[in-house]
């Protein structure tokens, strides 16, 4: 998935620094392939998605996280980044279901506004080298990557708003933004 759409949605720089995608990440929600910017209601994201990981060497392991950088409210994200899911030790060329679920999947429940739900795939140094954080709120992908010497190799996002919400995400850019 392109990092251009991640920058347009401000996933870069809100969650991640610029990176070069190097591993494929395929996310299926109910049999529907998700692409960056897919809009889902909470009822459509109740169950964890199927996530397929690429790669070329079965000796490589990956960590997948799902975070909400807009929690509890996009205009005041005091819980940024809220951790919804963490799976470690995923072998290359398999799916997240082959890894170790350290933080159980919690579907999004946005109360107000449109939330970006961001999947980040990290390359691990080896099996059993990553541990779960103590809390879900105020997780930081950057800090987590630094703590465990992880490299971002792929990322994707979908938008989610409460069931009765309407409209799409709109982006405003100042003259200093690219």
Automatic annotation (TrEMBL):
Protein name as annotated: Protein FLOWERING LOCUS T-like
Query: Which CDD domains does the record cross-reference, listed alphabetically?
Result: PEBP_euk (cd00866)
What protein family is recorded?
Belongs to the phosphatidylethanolamine-binding protein family.
The record, for PANTHER family, names: OS05G0518000 PROTEIN, PHOSPHATIDYLETHANOLAMINE-BINDING PROTEIN
């Amino acid at each position: 998935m392109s990092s251009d759409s991640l920058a347009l949605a401000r996933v870069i720089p809100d969650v991640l620094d610029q990176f070069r995608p190097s591993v494929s990440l395929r996310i299926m929600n109910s049999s529907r392939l998700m692409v960056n910017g897919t809009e889902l209601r909470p009822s459509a994201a109740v169950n964890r998605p199927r996530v397929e990981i690429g790669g070329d060497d079965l000796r490589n392991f990956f960590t997948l996280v799902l975070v909400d950088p807009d929690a509890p409210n996009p205009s005041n994200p005091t819980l940024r980044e809220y951790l919804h899911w963490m799976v470690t030790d995923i072998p290359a060329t398999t799916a997240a279901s082959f890894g170790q679920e350290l933080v159980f999947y919690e579907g999004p429940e946005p109360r107000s506004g449109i939330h970006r739900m961001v999947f980040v795939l990290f390359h691990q140094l080896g099996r059993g080298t990553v541990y779960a954080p103590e809390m879900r709120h105020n997780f930081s992908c950057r800090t987590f990557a630094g703590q465990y010497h992880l490299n971002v190799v792929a990322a994707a996002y979908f938008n989610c708003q409460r069931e009765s919400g309407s409209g799409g995400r709109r982006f405003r850019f100042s003259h200093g933004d690219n």
